Amino acid sequence: MNQPIAIELAATKKTKPQADQLGFGKYYTDHMFIMDYEASKGWHSPRIVPYQPITLDPASKVFHYGQTVFEGLKAYRTDNGSILLFRPEENFKRLNRSNERLSIPHLDEEIALEALKQLITVDQDWIPDEDKTSLYVRPFIIANESSLGVAPSQNYMFMIILSPVGSYYAEGIHPVKIFVESEYVRAVKGGVGNAKTAGNYAAGLKAQEEAAAKGCTQVLWLDGVERKYVEEVGSMNVFFSINGTIVTPALNGSILDGITRKSIIELLKSWNIPVEERKLSIGELVEAYHNGTLEEAFGTGTAAVISPIGELHYLDEQLLLRGGETGPLSRKLYETLTGIQTGVIADPFGWTVELPSAQYTAGTK
Amino acid sequence: MNQPIAIELAATKKTKPQADQLGFGKYYTDHMFIMDYEASKGWHSPRIVPYQPITLDPASKVFHYGQTVFEGLKAYRTDNGSILLFRPEENFKRLNRSNERLSIPHLDEEIALEALKQLITVDQDWIPDEDKTSLYVRPFIIANESSLGVAPSQNYMFMIILSPVGSYYAEGIHPVKIFVESEYVRAVKGGVGNAKTAGNYAAGLKAQEEAAAKGCTQVLWLDGVERKYVEEVGSMNVFFSINGTIVTPALNGSILDGITRKSIIELLKSWNIPVEERKLSIGELVEAYHNGTLEEAFGTGTAAVISPIGELHYLDEQLLLRGGETGPLSRKLYETLTGIQTGVIADPFGWTVELPSAQYTAGTK
Description:
The structure is a homodimer. Helices cover about 25% and strands about 30% of the residues of chain A. Chain A is α+β, with helices and mostly antiparallel strands and about 375 residues long.
């Protein structure tokens, strides 16, 4: 890369939380990565600095016009002490697709990946090694020009922060109740649903709150046009096993192109299990449920990896799947994918990227 | 209100820009208002402080999940030196409707209005008094809990910043070329299009850039479902004069409930001009254009007040309205509304709110 990454180490290090206290996205490591963009200079000044608050003008565009994109991936500590990343190049490719949609300047994917690797190496003592734990990595870009004109920002910050996390669900893999949303819409074709940008998540909070009040963990989003085709579940992609075939909504412009989604499809194909990416209506699901061919359902995403669906609440119906228990395919996919991610299972796909971990000594964290 | 507003005055005051250099949203006054929210304490610590950068944790939810809402209104200096606000209570009512949609806690509208009045009073020397100038007021709320879980924030900041602005267009009222957007969609029913939240603006930047590349200033948004009904123009509401009747899209859940829109409808009704709030298709507009009944078109919003549409680009057609000139109704509405806003014309509607301006001396700014 053109500009070397400057590194300023923290004078003191924070106390690390206990593994059973981690939760998700509550603790941050000792350092973070920052790189600035100015229209006249491009991306510049890549640096690793102590984790610290950032200072922004109150008129910064990110606060007012939401010009921001992000990514999420995980680093795992293997049993032999090495560090594995899962398909990180896919995250930066997608970050640039999101950038394109949000009128944010292109980021050099190699520089971003190098920054990520160096940051994780600096903070590698923060990668938990207990079962079901990992280091969650959050790259993001915010628009920080102070201007209230509605136009793309002239200035940006690209940052990476790291958070040691436990299993998304305390039980590891855990079937959830899902409310099929018929009032709120997450995204529509022509909008930003296929970009990983803040506004999509803000738009979903209300539905999630109302679903929680009805005893459900997440919502199943239907399309915004016909209000009948399945799109995503919460902030995950969604799969259904129908009569031996695994069906997931096709990428249609309003669905996020999930990296776990893509990996699950590749994994299923490698097992010679038929997979269909196509339009899937809620009506078809209800019918399959009633004729006994809806065998399993699960969400896929970086945070939970596989999230089995135990129950679907649709209008006045409650569709109980596999008696509310985790199905065998969900479990096998979870175990295989997390096995590959953590180095327990060999990776025949070349998905994992190993980082050097010279300073690591098991049990010293 | 329960808690008095603490005031910390700036030790030094900034040099004020020349009236002809103002532009829109480029300069900020000497002070700003802040109030914090914590789940356990509610909104607390209202204060006016010197305008300054704010410090946020990089994991603050506003950066990642876009939980933020805002408002925009203007304060005007009248010829006799008083300060007028235009329907500010409507802004805070709408802010709370936006809050409701974005799962942000309710804000006491009286406290917010009192904060706004005190802040403007403190910075009243910043209200420009030249023709076509005003003080733009930007209240906004950001989620500042540092947590990467996708859930409503436990902490928020409500802020008000002030920016002296010139006319949105240098010429005052100026017909613009509009590109009828058929690829991108701003919002859809069930989404957040009727809330004033950052994500809506982020979603529109790309279309605006592409329209600009085609020589157009803004886009005319069509609905996201049938892709044929007119919704908004840029970030303004839109009106058409068709055969003597003024037609504007009905509020349908994806259109912002504009305060200028509402005022224009009330003004037209007071003039006994027929107004219809209804579905309006692009096909109907093209047909009206060709049969000679499409008389005028204009956008309405706080920033430009009235923005006449001189030309519509739709597919391969260019619909030239009134030879690209400002129509008489657009001009009359602009002059009447800005006249009321600036105190030049009597306000029979009770829309304006006058602030005390004891320290003001004309020409001392």
